[in-house]
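Shipment paperwork, digital attachment
Item: protein structure file
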Amino acid sequence: MKIFAIPFALITWFLAVASAAELPPLPAGAFTIAVIPDTQGYYGMATKSQPDSKDPLTNAVFAHHTAFIKDHIKDQNIVFVSHVGDIVDIDVWSQWKLAREDIDAFHGLVPYGLVVGNHDMKSDGNASLFQHYFPAERFKEFAWYGGSFTSANQDDEKKYGNNANSYQLFSEGGMDFVFIHLECNAPDPVLEWAGGILDRYADRRACISTHMDLGVIHSPKTKEGFSKDPQGRMLWSKVHKKQGNTPQQMWDKLYRKHANLGFVFSGDQSRVTALHLTDTGDQGNIVHRLLSDYTSTGPMRLYRFLPADNQVEVITWDTTINELTETTQYKTGRESHQFSFDYNMSAKP
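Attachment content:
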């Protein structure tokens, strides 16, 4: 039997490749909030990308995201999952059915919430298909489900209720959280409801996911404008017509008023890709605003809370190829995709 000498360089290369599919180890006492960006990558019959296709409907990236979450709940201590909207690309039965099947991968295993994006509703705010596949009734058995928007006004209730706007409660690392999911360009009745939730749970650390927040400040006139124009809190809206609030209006009417708010997660802006900015609320609290939209190409976000270090570590992980996402892969993004920031987990919210 011959024994072959393997060059050291080859061994090093092999070890690097073998470890490429491994996430950095989770520090002791840490926990993770997973944020799924827009999942508009539907292919096959009657899709925007392949309108003439006869192939079955698929969304491989969405399936990879949800399978990853299911498989890593324990080793990454995933305590909450948020989807920032545009769950579907076209607001039709077939895409919602597939989205429901994908999310079923972790349904009942971990607390989660869903945002209704502009692709998930009609332009006037009709989200009836979302409400059919993800109604409030689907979540009422879970202790972590706080509830959804309700109103005595039947028109408001029909449009904005039945889980189209919802909140969840969970605790980890000695901290209590309230997490609110607001539809794209949420109208005033929804913002008033959300303000009441933040007041009721003022002793909890608050997170909000919504679809539009950070991105191109003014509505671009050209496709190139998305990557070249000034970026920050957006001053334009897409749905709900005159009733829809811009991200700036949502900040002024809701976000800035609540001392316990620490995070606003969003998507929508695929040509901006990623952005992290901070604002100071009226009572001096720092609000981290975090945009991630990877155009259904593979990456999603893992926010690791490290109580021992009072830091949040942001990992952008491609669940399709099982690798960290490098900045050079997404040149339109002006932010790094792997970073960390300070967040005081010792003080009261």
